[in-house]
Design goal:
The complex is a heterodimer of chains A (about 170) and B (about 700). With about 170 residues, chain A is an alpha+beta fold. Chain A has helices spanning about 35-40, 95-105, 115-125, 130-140, 150-170, and strands at about 15-20, 20-25, 60, 65-70, 80-85. Chain A has 2 domains: about 10-85, Ubiquitin-like (UB roll), CATH 3.10.20; about 95-170, DNA polymerase, domain 1 (Orthogonal Bundle), CATH 1.10.150. In chain A, helix 2 (about 95-105) packs across helix 5 (about 150-170). Helix content of chain B is about 25%, strand content about 25%. The mean pLDDT of chain B is about 95. Chain B has a 7-stranded mixed beta sheet with strand order 11-12-9-19-16-17-18, with helices on both faces. A 5-stranded mixed beta sheet of chain B has the order 4-3-2-1-8. Chain B has about 700 residues and is an alpha+beta fold. Chain B folds into 3 domains: about 10-200, Aldehyde oxidase/xanthine dehydrogenase, molybdopterin binding domain (Aldehyde Oxidoreductase, domain 4); about 215-285 and about 345-420, Aldehyde Oxidoreductase, domain 4; about 300-335 and about 435-690, Aldehyde Oxidoreductase, domain 4 (2-Layer Sandwich), CATH 3.30.365. The longest helix of chain B has 28 residues, at about 115-140. The chains are: A alpha+beta (about 170), B alpha+beta (about 700). At the A-B interface, helix 2, helix 3 and helix 5 of A face helix 5 and helix 16 of B.
Amino acid sequence: MVPSEPLPPPRLVPKLRVNGVDHPIRLDRDRSLLYVLREELGLTGTKYGCGEGECGACKVLLDGVAVRSCKTPVGETVGRSITTIEGLADGQALHPVQQAFVEEGAFQCGYCTPGMILAAVSLLNQNPRPSEDEVRAALDGNLCRCGGYLRILEAVQRASRRSSRSGEGGT
Amino acid sequence: MSENVVPFDLLPPTERAYFDRWGDGLVVVLPSHPPGPGGWGRDGPPHGGAWIHVGEDGKARAFTGKVEVGQGTRTALSLLVAEELRLPLSSVELTMGDTDVCPWDMGTFGSRSMPDAGEHLRLTGAAARGFLLEIAATKLEIAPKDLECSDGQVWAKGMKGSRSVAYAELVHGLRRVETVPPSAQPTPPSAWTRAGHPTSNLGGREVVTGTRQYTSDLHPPGLMHGNVLFPPSKGAKLRVVDLSGAQAMPGVVTVHEGDLVAVAAPDLASARAALKAIRAEWEPALPLSEKDVVEYLRQHPAEGEDFWDVIHHAVGDVDAALRAAPVSLHETYTTAYIAHVPMETHAVLAAWEGERLTLWMGSQTPFRAREAVSDALDLPPASVRIVVPPTGSGFGGKHAADLGVVAARLAKAAGHPVRITYTREEEFAQGYFRPLAVIDVRSGAADDGTLEAWEFHVLNAGSAAARTPYRVTNQKIDSQPADSPLSQGSYRALAATANNFARESHLDELATRVGVDPVEYRLRHLADDRLAAVLRAVAERAGWVARPRPVAPGGRPGRGRGIAVGLEKGGRVATFAEVEVHEDRRLEVARIVTGFECGAIVHPTNLRSQVEGGTIMALGGALFEAIHFENGRVLNPRLSEYRVPRFRDVPPIEVLLLDRRDLPSQGGGEAPLLAVAPAIANAIYDATGRRLRSLPLVPDGLVP
């Protein structure tokens, strides 16, 4: 998964920074970020759901903000920092949103979960204490066909409460 | 795996290689009963069995032919095994739907996982516990009745801590295969300590870290990607095809056999390009469009097959009773074709090892898929293995095996493993749909409201829940399949949703006509006490105040309430809905209360998710989901054109679970959907006086 450091000067080989690791990539075709992540880097935690930006299963973080990787040309992401679901946990320690999803049982088939979690992380990055309506609005672009929306809502609010509590405790 | 593997279900229980695969131990088998040569129903309904291996590592490996596609049965069934063997959940490993090692099973549909697989695993686990006690009795020289199992050990009763022996030690060096004896006694739900208690679903860490591998994520070395050339409309015939463009592309393999045209390439983009390079001309077959479909179905009845059974049920004299009844109603209700829209589209991976084929696919019917694939490829069933990886939901939409046949042919031609993953557009256009149903209802009531006549004619919905749970002396119920212009098939609670929508809407109309409160009207006629109990519980939670007619004085303008019940697959459901119809006619579902009872609850955490999720899925079909088509072609095969419920569509939902530990556990995946649409239709009527009799009720979000 982790390639050896490329030898040519960095400017000649565009590099994609994913989960803290630089990956040399080709820019010779009009490929989406989703395609490169799944088909070339083997990061299959990012899911294909519709290919037209309607379902959110393909969401990743681009400089901390959730984007639909199926609608994002890979060329636009060179030089920026990409986080996929595989890179969210800190080693064995789950991110608070991941932890809350497990505790709240906020998944059924689990296929929408990576995109859902990253959309929630993006929201909490910008708004650590969102109201229920704000969570709903932020996640409206993410579909869950198992209908886990209310569990997901609970999980995001749980993560929000925990983060802000630990934030208070830490200062 | 070598080529001469024989799937376990094709060998007698004593000849299977349990111990070579999982080490020494104790194996207990509940034999399965596949359909005989005469087909289903010859020797009673077929059923899958179960078997459990208790190994030297102290683990219980359990096997069932049912599959997990996101409905949570892996955890529920594992809980039952853990319960019977007195083991922590982490000491149970459940293998599901692998046709090489699992017992034969007809498939995961019809809410049968709990009543069938659950019951079979309980029996097998109880039997295994009995054999462990027996072995321990010899070892400890204590009578089995004075021993008990707990925490993976057998203990002398009342002497806990002093004399015990671990399962691992009991089965050490053992290679014993037993059959479940008739005396096996599963633990009664009232004594459950693991099952029936809140538990997280297994595999959470893999899900939230993105490491769970679905079929569409599998990427073995040498993988090639397949694409299929599909007709532009149902039934279109391939007239001319020119593959030269695709064949000229590097690394591309093509298959052309009859109407099947498919390509494979070393990467997904090349496979797409190769498909685009094919030139084909089609002869369209069905010039039928949406606006003509109801009339078409009425004129094209079809033979019943499989679950599309024909029902003709008559008691008393409906015609005479209708003529005599002072109050009578005659209405027609319809439902649209809707799509399953699983988050993970259909995916299948095919790999050959010599003449043996393995297919990884999110199939709800792996054993039937094995049969279909081996038939299509002219292989013995033993030469095909179906493995069901974690699957991104199914909802009844993943029963077909044809994609597996295509992948197998491509893999054979390419000499490489081939995976086909549908695009979302292919998923919409190439799948089958929940049937478009037309239901005619005629009813008659006495002056005091008593239901005297009930005629229920179902066209193309299927027969589930066609019969009425209400007492009525004269009734005539027919269910007639029709020749559908679009592919149709299984769907979560398909027929029951349509039939229940018609019945529960109609009953409300009748209650209004005779001036009786809808809850009271139902309770007066309900023949099922359990269903009545669920209805009462929901009415109470919802704060239902009885009134004989809609629009109570002092009630809020535009606000309405509705209630409906459903009884299907052993589950009893009642749903209350409160709606608000705004000045601009926009419909808002303001509140839902769903009560559900399915006997003893095995996995309450997951059941709540199933009831909530089922309610939300049903909202889509009730309010806005519909497949549009013209000349046999689906017009809205994209998520931007076919709307499914999102966060914004989800009202507050209260779930009431009635746990009946005195009753056998039934499935919970389907029945919770049944009462949503009629409850909302009834609420819209209550709010506006408008009776909507077609699903979806408000395709554009507005009450007409």
